Amino acid sequence: MRFPGKMYAVLGKRNGRILQEDMREGSQVFSITAVLPVVESFGFAEEIRKRTSGLASPQLTFSHWEVVDVDPFWVPTTEEEYMHFGDKADSDNQARIYMNNVRRRKGLKVDEKIVEHAEKQRTLTKNK
Prior knowledge:
Elements (H helix, E strand, L loop, with lengths): L3 H10 L3 E7 L6 E6 L8 H8 L27 H7 L8 H13 L22
Antiparallel strand pairs: 1-2
């Protein structure tokens, strides 16, 4: 296969971990075994086919449960946490992203701000 780099890019973008890779002798077949969060698997087959020009054919099967060890509702409260993560804690909380994606897909309410740190827009009037 000529596109293993593009497959790695798709897996990396979707927080996948590669467990095993094999190249069959005498052919151009390249096999990758990886784990991918279920919430990231929606649309995976279409994206990997698109990126590899249809040469990759994914086979998704359930493997195991794994706990995301981050609290989706965590915000920095102590001064030490603010010093470590910054005032806005701008690193994305992966558990919250997963939770919001599932809620959106199921049509549930997502508690997000549409506009953050916006300033009032001023309209300029034309002098007559």
